[in-house]
């Protein structure tokens, strides 16, 4: 868990403290992009998840209060931003796993509420990373006003997290982000999406097992596009009490298309085993109308796949 | 509403720039502070320096600069790959909305970057090159040769943008990264850029090759010029291959006509062909030659398709130019005279 502190700049105007939960694929990209756009002082604090320990919570609370106190000296009331991109439960998680995660999230939201109450001069906002795939599994061409209908505990967890956040203190501005299928670089540890798995296994000439069939359609977004957007959102103060945005490309892509692009880039055939079952080969696609407003922008899929491939080739872990 | 922040990355290949790098980073730092201080929507997000097996102390200088400035990023290539591959490596690692490539030796002044950007957003361009107003290398002959070379290559490849090509360029990030991603070591990067966009222009600047002017040294040699020409031709298009195919088809017709002429000659004027069997042999050779050329032209056509496919030339490319409005309104605000009290 990271706490980032900034003196503020022209765009953000105010000094700011960002409390970021989860430094996985998305969290790391958000930190990278926040640091690209302006200098921050970053501190990593211990934060155990199962369950959240009282001493860690009070340590975080004290750290944030003292950071805000320090920033107040500039003469401007600071902003406090919470960013939740944590999550151990994957798409196939059981209800018991997701229950613990919801309890943790509720506790963090309560902490934000307490801090908002204790610092009335501070503008507090909370950004939650939900999941477009979890909420709209099996739906094609989802529209901005389509009601979520989760089919598994993971999707229900995301819906419940959204509900918890919406029900919090009205002093907290809330932003719910719903990313679709996120892909990033090949990671030696941790979960990877379809694209990095195909690249890694393609280079190793190993078999990739895909949960889905060749015609399964998904919506892919690169993690750097998300990091860049979130950093820009966090640096811009919004008056909106509640916003829900889809971080999607609006361009459905079939698994076959991805396999063909990767094969072309690697200049070799991929060994693919399709694990087809009714539950994992559902399409999840979004209409272009769902796309978040500017500055949300998505990089070309083939370009980012080539970049991941080259970076993997350049790394010693290939 | 979220205010767009337009991020800009610079990419500089480094080979022997030890004495220029601190000054270059200082100038980039001044530009960064100027934008941040003036409320500009642009941010100089990162200055990427690609150390291409530098032969002097450039890498150490860059490491110390990176320790001082969080926005300075150093990439070290495993061996010397050359200026173009180093530039492409830097672009691949960049993440800015716009990417500026510039030389290490202060030939390209960062103070000119806003001018490149202003032209790009005002005309909806994707690539803007710097165009030297006068002799860059301090020698009329060298600059004449450079200009003539570009003109000749422009004609040979039917690429009207070759005359603009310069290593000081501003490119839309998505275009730059896409072009870098399809470029191999034999691809001419600027030609690959043209695969993605035709919205290309240039803006005139005073550019000066300080290294050449002061030390009489230049990294460009005649051999490199030939290598550039070869890569430009290979990448530019398959037109020269198609010329071969057309010649093949032309030769078939020529062979056919000659065969008919020889046959008619043998029938009407048999005494003009005294050697028995010559006519049938000659016609046979012509037909086989024509057939071989025709098959060769078909192979060339297929080769062209495979070449374009393997080079990664895109079938289409989607681009979003809407964020330019934010930058354009900033430049318009700057142009408006301030209202006094």
Would you kindly provide a brief summary of this structure?
The complex is a heterodimer of chains A (318) and B (341). With 318 residues, chain A is α/β, with parallel strands linked by helices.
As a percent range, the share of helical residues of chain B equals 40-55%
Give the overall shape of chain A, derived from the CA principal axes: globular
Number of strands of chain A: 13
Mean pLDDT of chain B: 84
Largest sheet of chain B: 7 strands, mixed
Based on secondary structure, the structural category of chain B is alpha/beta
The first-to-last residue Cα distance of chain A is: 29 Å
Question: Order of strands side by side in the largest beta sheet of chain B?
Answer: 3-2-1-4-6-5-7
Describe what this molecule looks like in 3D.
The complex is a heterodimer of chains A (318) and B (341). With 318 residues, chain A is α/β, with parallel strands linked by helices. Helices cover 39% and strands 19% of the residues of chain A. Chain A has nine helices and 13 strands. Chain A has a seven-stranded mixed β-sheet, covered by helices on one side. Chain A has a two-stranded parallel sheet with strand order 7-10. A two-stranded parallel sheet of chain A has the order 8-13. In chain A, helix 3 links the parallel strand 4 and strand 5. In chain A, helix 1 packs across helix 7 and helix 8 packs across helix 9. The two termini of chain A are 29 Å apart. The model of chain A has no long low-confidence stretch (mean pLDDT 88). With 341 residues, chain B is an alpha/beta fold. Chain B is built from twelve helices and seven strands. Chain B has a seven-stranded mixed β-sheet, with helices on both faces. In chain B, helix 6 crosses helix 7. The mean pLDDT of chain B is 84. Chains A and B meet through helix 1, helix 7 and helix 9 of A and strand 2 and helix 6 of B.
